[in-house]
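Support request, please re-run this one:
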Amino acid sequence: MNAWFLLLIPGAYLLGSVPFGLLIAQTKGIDLRKVGSGNIGATNVSRALGKKWAYVCFVLDCCKGLVPMLLGGLLIQHEAIMIGSLFLWLAVGCAAILGHIFSVYLKFTGGKGAATGLGVMLGLYPYYTLPGMITFLIWMALVLAFRYVSLATIVGSAAFPISLVIAIALLDTWTFAVLWPLVLVAAIMAILVIIRHAENIKRLLDGSEAKVLQRKR
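Re-run finished. Output below.
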């Protein structure tokens, strides 16, 4: 099993490094890094190309985390869940997220990791899936209420490890003694995503952050 993970982890990084938003925009003759915030994620794709292509970008970026995690889950499905196997599975997800943030194809620059992180959450079933769904609902509610994707992502990222801890405390079959690596990595992922939103935080504080889902007058 470990030998397969030695292939899957770098494979997840290379897949995570694929800048789908940038590639989509290039097919339309647009350099996404020179539009709006300059980010290569779905929000900036929406500014450059509209909602339809933003949804495509979001799904593709999400799949960069989801697909490797599902493959990792298949590798350990017949094994007892132990701390070592959890760390291997988590390493796959971290590799995908780091690929998106520090893409080897973009000289180790990239996006903010939120959509790919969501894919990782959904793919690490069931331990990250339930807290991930709760986090996504929080994210969606905040987007609809305040129209700031960045604010929703920051709050959702912070809520994810908290939701995981609550789930471990409430579910009898989940024990912190075994699942503590999940909490550790969830907290690190949340901090990393929030740090990547430093410029957005500044714009939120000074009132210059762009909103989404605004009705055209």
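The mean pLDDT is 91. The two ends are 57 Å apart (CA to CA).
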